[in-house]
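Re: 2-aminohexanedioic acid structure - here you go.
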Amino acid sequence: MAAYKMYIGGEWTGGDGYFETINPATEKPIAKFPSGTARHVDMAVDAAKAALPKWSMMPPPKRGLILLRIAEILKAEKERLGRLVSTEMGKVLPEALGDVQEAIDTFEYFAGEGRRLYGSTTTSELKDKFCLTFRQPVGVVGLITPWNFPTAIPAWKLAPALICGNTAVFKPSSDTPLCAYEMVKALVKAGVPPGVVNFVTGPAASVGEAIVRHPGIEGISFTGSKATGEWIIRNAGLKKVGLELGGKNPIIVMDDAKLDLAVDGILWGAFGTTGQRCTATSRVIAHRKIKPRLLSALITRARMLRLGPGTEKTSDVGPLINRAAQEKTAKYVGIGIGEGAKLLCGGMKPAGKGYYFKPTIFDGVSPDMRIAREEIFGPVLSVLEFEKLDDAIDIANSVEYGLSSSIYTNDVNNAFRAIGRIEAGITYVNSSTIGAEVHLPFGGVKGTGHTREAGILGLDEFSNTKTVYIDYSGKLQKAQIDVD
Ligand code: UN1
């Protein structure tokens, strides 16, 4: 089995021992990666610090050209990388190719920012005084990424971090280091200078913790669980912290909705990526009148979904990421049954190898049940019922998360009411809860964290705004005091 290396200060470096990355469809190891330690994080931070002055002073359009080259390299390798995403992470090939495409789009988008990175100019309350703002890099940033979008999410962080002139320590999830390695290779090939991005693999308890606590790191960007996000807030000191912490995303289906469309959207949102998206649809809040029809269509269609390796054309739903995820999903099925919800389909893993789990639907779920409140991150859908839209929105808002949401309705008044009242960073109308595009802000409210990634607002996480006052009056002018 191939043993890979970390990349620190432009050198490919080993660690203190290795861990294995596993193909979740076969449960077989596919590669070995170094177990990094706090010492490697120190080395990475030193390298990132040393590279910062030159990188941050390079004109942003030049940095943009490097980002564009990264996009081109990923584009040329899309098929191979897609297969790798599918093999290492488990998602089906069309989605895996989408993951790589999202990374390509992100690098292209932020490459263009090299010629914008807009600040603002504004008026002054005093004569002969000019006011403006511009963006400066945060400094050395720590990027801690999850496994569910093993190329797209690193791109969401790397591209804006780099265009803003930061240097980085990048720690990928230990479930998908090979996808992350490929990303780093593309960066190096595109001409990202040594020390600008340092790739440290290994456990959260050593590498992750060292990044979060490191005094040489100014910013942290993390996507993952709420519990870890809270830990980061407690331990990162005064670093600039960006968090994207998951969801319990609802689809409200009104009695006037186009039901076939809603069924397509629900299945895609709940069982696409085997339910392993922060944006996954985990609750359907269905109008009492249409619920029986909706459920019968959902069950029929969910039972038809074919489980199998992501790399096989015949697979609709790939495996979960690992054994722990499979066990967690099974545990929640047990909790749902124990709470008195009605299991309509799925509810177990199929026989044989691979961390598969059958698409699962619960009816008779009430908002106080744990399966209606907690993020399962597996193919489990809870169906709740309502009669009035305001009640549906109250149910939608009754959880601690607030990432994505959706309403299916043909009534524009319902749509706008939901858009205004649902507590979430994203609301879709007549479309599923998944499928965000890279040029729009992505993020949540409440327990999801309040950071925005992607789009123009994605620059805010990786830049500090400098405010400049230029007084050309030739005399001392006092704001708030020279009022006449
Ligand atoms: C995530 O699950 O953390 O909107 C990201 C979507 C994808 C990104 C999901 N474009 O579903």
